[in-house]
Each structure stands twice: as structure tokens, then as C-alpha cells.
Amino acid sequence: MEQKLIDKYGRKLDYLRLSVTDRCNFRCYYCMPEEGMNFVQRDDLLSYEELDYLTRIFVDLGVRKIRITGGEPFVRKGILDFIELLSKNQNLKEITLTSNGSISKAQINQLAKFGVKKINISLDSLDPKRFYEITRRDKFEEVMGCIKTLLSEDFNVKLNCVIDGKKNIEDIVPFINLTKDHALSVRFLEEMPFNGTGKFDIPEWNYQALYNYIDSQFPGIQKISDESNSTSVNYKVPGFSGSFGIIPAFSRTFCGTCNRIRLSATGELRTCLYGPPVTNLRDILRSGCGDDQLKSAILEAVANKAKDGFEAENQTSNQAKNSMSFLGG
Question: Locate the Radical SAM core domain: which residues (predicted)?
Fold first, then answer.
């Protein structure tokens, strides 16, 4: 009998978000503190061989899309060799990436060669000064150069912008104006409680506030169709080449169609970003267990997937939340 990742609510989990490192060359305030991060030791990370083995297990169970995340994936040595290895799996339909824009032209050329043409770039400001305040790094020109190269090479580019009422409201209009002449998508995200500090206020700029503000600045915005299992509600300004979306990341209105499962760089398996790890596949693998035991652990995790992010969060109410760099988004 063929085994597939379908939870008790009938949701088919065919999308794996795979974190390959918790390290990053930026220090975005909503993701991690500026100092004091206890990064994972090398021996605790899944090796590329282990990652390849585990991803094959997931594909056998019906996963058809893998998104490589971090931290920043490109700070880990050998990442392109691993992506090439993934690209050779004929049953895997799509490989995508999330990056902060630390990708060189040579690396972009290699990604295209491997058939990886969809990339999300985390970018929270189009103003160099605000960019520095948010990332704590002077890398604005480098990131913009990466985005321009991706567009010139016909990559499908999405820019993810986390909105904070005290940081970057002034960037909303410029981001949407960027879609006038560029066929890219900008997605505005509610801030989430994964900054590694243990302190978080419910975001004032939720998805409804974002929509109302954008609607006041661009009267006549049009709703466009959303992709299957999309986390964003998508729109465009008539006549503009690109589009924009709003992701209710904290409000979690999209949980009913969730098709995601997450594996951290240390092997922690999560069926919800807001929930606790349900098992550690690294430990199971290193104990000498084979395919059957690994598949059983994954299937059991999926069988107990929470109905939504609120139910999952209740399971972690007494636990400190990890930083987003560890969780992989």
C-alpha cells in the first residue's frame, strides 16, 4: 500500500521546508538578536549525505516541492553541490530557495543550470539607511545587485517584506511601485514572535491594516488568483507588470489549506511553524534505523498535525520560542 503524508483533516503535505543552517551573515532584528546567539555545533547539523537520504524518504512519501532555507543557505559551504544532488531526483517536481540576497552571479548561473528558477528574497526596505537599521549590515547594494541579476536571468522572484509600524511603513509604497516595471511579486508579512529574545508584541500592522493602507494609496487595486495552498492573498495595481501579496503570518488565516512540513538543520521535524518539534529524524537516523522506522516517525507526526497554528502554539505555551534563523521560516 502506497504511503502518503495526509493528515486527519485531509490535508496533503507535499511541501518540505528544509533548513540547512541556522547561521546567517545578517542580523535582522525580527529574526535574531544582534549578539549572544548560540549557533549549532557542526557535528549537530545534518550532513549533506544525511539531508539527501532524508529528502529521498520525504519524496517517497509524496513530497514534491522542497524549499531550501536557513539561516542563510549560502553561508553553508557545499550548498550548490547539495542542490545539484536534489535536482537529480526525478520525483521531485520543484526546488525553490529563500535567501537574504547573498548570492553571487556565478552561484545564480549554477542555480539556473540545476533548474532552480524560483527564489524568495527577504528584503525589508528599499532605503539603504533603513536597510542597515533592520539588518545591522551594510549590504544594501549587494542585495539589490543580486535581485537585478535574478530578474535579468528570468528568475521568478518574490520579495518578502516584514512590516513593523516603527521601522518600515515608508517602504510599502516604494515596494509596490517597484512592481510597475518589474515582473516580480512583493509580499508583505505580519511580524511573528520568532526573534530569539522572548519578547514580542502583537503586530499592530496586521493583514487588514496593511490592506487598508495600500488601498488608500493605490485606489483600484485588483484581486488576482492565488496559487493552490498559497499563504498570501494577492493583488496588483492595474497596468503594473508585477503584483503584491499580504501574508497573515501571525493571524494565520491560511492554516486550513496548509501543505507544509518543516525539517531543521539539526533534524527537528515540525508539522507547524508555531508548534514544537514532534521528533528528531537526525537522532533516529544516527541510531541506525532504516527507511521503515523513519517513515513511521514522519507518518505519526503528520497524523497528529494540529488543526491550525493557534492549536499548535498552545502546545508550546511554556516553552521559549526559537529564533527564525533556527526554524527556517
Answer: 8-225
